[in-house]
Amino acid sequence: MASIQFTHAGVEIPIFNAGSRSLKKKMIHIASSGKISADPSGHVVVRALYDLNLNFADGDRVGLIGHNGAGKSTLLRVLSGVYTPNQGQVLRQGSMSSLIDMSLGIDHEATGRENIFLRGALLGLSKKEMNARLGEIIEFSELGDFIDLPVRTYSSGMNLRLAFSVSTMIRPEILLMDEWLSVGDEGFKHKAEARLAELIESTKILVIASHSHDLILKTCNRVLWLEHGVIKMDGTPDEVCAAYFV
Length: 246
Prior knowledge:
- It is a single chain.
- This protein is of the alpha/beta class and 246 residues long.
- The protein folds into two domains: 3-94 and 208-244, P-loop containing nucleotide triphosphate hydrolases (Rossmann fold, 3-Layer(aba) Sandwich), CATH 3.40.50; 112-203, no CATH class.
- It is 36% helix and 27% strand.
- The protein has eight helices and ten strands.
- Helix 3 (112-122) packs across helix 5 (156-167).
- The longest helix is centred in the last third of the chain and has 17 residues, at 186-202.
- The chain is globular, with a radius of gyration of 20 Å.
- Mean pLDDT is 88; it is low at 30-34.
């Protein structure tokens, strides 16, 4: 059973070395509706998320919508454990995987084969598990003999195919995504989308940030509309999308 619980959770990000920029701070304060302020020591503070009370459970397919800077990426980073809330708490139960930055841990001087083990280690897999899946990953990536060449010799499409092949080999209970992934040429794209659909189907909780009306309606059964780090609306895709996409 997978679950995520936010209890009065908030994230404030201090901006250092900004104390002397009084005019700029004032203009930012006006433009951001007061979401940028100063703490008692005088540091500029960005309130990225504020007083979130949320529960995600098995079967939730949650879409995150909102303008740029609304807090979607910050929320995903809190869910993944990259950020720790300054206020409140976040409790997670279940294995988790993120497709937000698939290139994390890729060493461009190392070979594709070596990078499979590097990326696998970051995903929490043992060397024995990686050896067992190595052939499958190489075959899926369609890199052929390039797998033993340095990644710096790869095209951008080859880089994506390698990262995607490794990142989607596990089946987490909680999956985090920032927009739908589009990988490689048309032939590989169809294969990648089929694997991605299979991955989403097998996961217990999906949280995906997107600006796509169609993707949200197609993929999600619940939508959170974020504005200035708070939840403006939480409901069904039809209800929330009708209010947001106008």
